[in-house]
Amino acid sequence: MSSIMRNQLCRAGSLLTLLLLVVQLSACQESTAEQQPDEGLRTVRLETVGTGPSEGQRRFVGRVDALRTVDLSFQVGGRILNMPVQQGAIVPAGGLMAELDKADYDRAVREAQVALDLAELDHDRSSQMLERGAIPQASYDRSLADLEMRRLALDAAQRNLGYASIEAPFDALVTRRLVDAFTQVQAGARVVRVQDVTELRVHIAVPETLMSMLQTPERFDVTAEVAAYPGKTFTLSYREHATEADPVTQTYQISFGLPRAEAPQLLPGMTATVTVKSRAGSLPASITVPASALDTEADGSFRVWIYDPATQQVNPRRVLTGALGSQRVLIESGLQPGEQIVTAGAHLLRPQMRVTPYRSER
C-alpha cells in the first residue's frame, strides 16, 4: 500500500471519529433537555367566580343622549351668506340656522312671475277669440297648457327660494357647524348638526337575566344621578328597549326619558349612574370580581383573564361592568359562576400563556 493511500485512510478515519463524537454530544444535549422540567411558568392568584346575594336594586352606568340628532342641509346650492348660530346654543323651532345668497333665486321668482302674467294675458285673448270663432280649439288648448306650465314654474322658483334658508325643525341644540359662512355648498351638503333635546334619553345595557324582567317597567322604579347635579336624584321614565343583543357583550339596551327642563345643564354624551329598584323584591343574584382582576383592551373596554385547569392556560374575555366599588366590581355579562379568573398581574399575561396557580403555604 502506498503512502498516499495510507494518508487518505487516516484522514477518513479521523473524520468518521469526529462525526461520531458530534452525534453523541447532540444526543446527550437532547436527553438533558428532555429531562429538564418546564421553567418560567408565571404564578398567578385565582378566584372562582360566584354569585353574590340578591338585592332589591342594581346600579348601571348610563349614557345621556339626545332624542334625535340631525344633520341639516340646503336643498339647493349656493354661497352661504348668513349663519347666525353658535355651537352650544339652543335655537327655537322655526329659528334661522343658515341662509344662502338669495339674489339668483329672487330673480328666478320675478322672471317666473313675469312669464306667468304674460301667459295669463295670452290665455284671456285666446279665450275671447275662441268665443268669436277666430281661432281653432287647438290654439286655445296650447295657451291653456302654457298658462299651467308658467304657474308650475313660478311654484318651483318660489320653492327654491324657500330652500335657500334652513330653519330649526324643533328646539335644536347646535352641536357643530360643519361649514363656515361664505362657503360655496352643493345641494344636500351637510351644513350644521343639531340635536333635539326637548327630552333627554338615558341608555343602559343590561344582561339577559334582567332583560325579561325590565320589559315590564311597572315593576321597577328607575332613578339617575349625574355629576353635574351632586346630591340630586332624577326619576326616569321607560321609553323603549332593543330586542337584539350586542354581538360582543350579549347585553340589551334600554332607554329612559328625562325632561330637559329638570336638568338643563345635562348634555348628550355625559354619563349617569342609573339605579333600578324592584317593587316586587329581589333581583337575580349578581356576580362581582376584585377590581384588580380587570384589564383593559385597546379600545378601552374591560376584560378579565380566564384560567383553564385542563391546559393551564389563560385567555382574555371581554366583560361588561356595572357599579365600580373600591374593592369589587359588578359584572353585568361575560362571566359564569364556577369559572376561574386571574385576580392580579393581568397586564403581564398574554393569550394562551401557561401559568401555575398560587397556593399559599399552610
UniProtKB/TrEMBL annotation:
Coiled-coil regions listed in the entry: none
Keywords, sorted A to Z: Signal
One example GO MF annotation: efflux transmembrane transporter activity
Highest taxon listed in the record's lineage: Bacteria
Signal peptide per UniProt: 1-27
Gene Ontology CC: one annotated term: efflux pump complex
Domain Multidrug resistance protein MdtA-like C-terminal permuted SH3: 287-346
The CusB-like beta-barrel domain, residue ranges: 202-278
TM annotation in the entry: none
Similarity annotation: Belongs to the membrane fusion protein (MFP) (TC 8.A.1) family.
Protein name in UniProt: RND transporter
Native species: Pseudohongiella spirulinae
